[in-house]
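The data layer described in this paper is built around a simple, fixed record for each protein. Because each token names a local backbone shape, the row as a whole describes the fold. We quote a single record here, exactly as it is kept in our systems:

***
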Amino acid sequence: MNRQLKVFGIILTPLVIGLSYIPISIAGVPSSKQKWMQWNNAWGIDTEDIEMKGKRLRFYVSRAGQPGEDTVNVRQTWQGKIRISCDSMKARHEIADGKYGNHIVYNWYHLRQGLFGYDLASHFCYLTGEPGFTPEGYQSAVADKIRDTIISKYRKNIPTTYTYKKSIPKAPECNRALHDYDCSYSKYLDSNASIKAWADANPDMANKERIRLKSVD
């Protein structure tokens, strides 16, 4: 049944009421004032409610399904938590089930490049003091805010060398596809044989791609 609300003589349907709400992530609010921010097209993250216990980190996140993903066999859109185990390089999802604040807890899985949990580990595990992790050379505004939150809350637990590292040098401005290759299109090609073969066969198009990706070479 389509229910209506009458406020000051104006008929409002639930749809109109819903449209009147503007999420903070797209409202005219400075990014430094936002609690929830977008990490990328698929993932949003709470930049303030973060927990660090020993070598583990907990984040509240939301995920939006993307075009072309398998939505029949895999739940792609959800809200909940991601826990990162920095010493074992594993992660675990805890998806909110919408009842009484409970979460469906999934098994720990190994992290690998391309996964959101890997990005979180790569950016923030160094703050736990786990050996082998170092600050990322490139930091987005979202990552900066999360880092500052962790430092502010757990200053006593963070290695001294990192506690006051407020300004991490940024990598040259290039497309994200080249961030793992020092913004070098040549290194990118050397690490991807099939793409290199295409570039060798199509030098003009490859040069255009080099420019589009803002390669440093």
Observations:
- DSSP finds seven helices and nine strands in the chain.
- The first helix runs from residue 14 to 19.
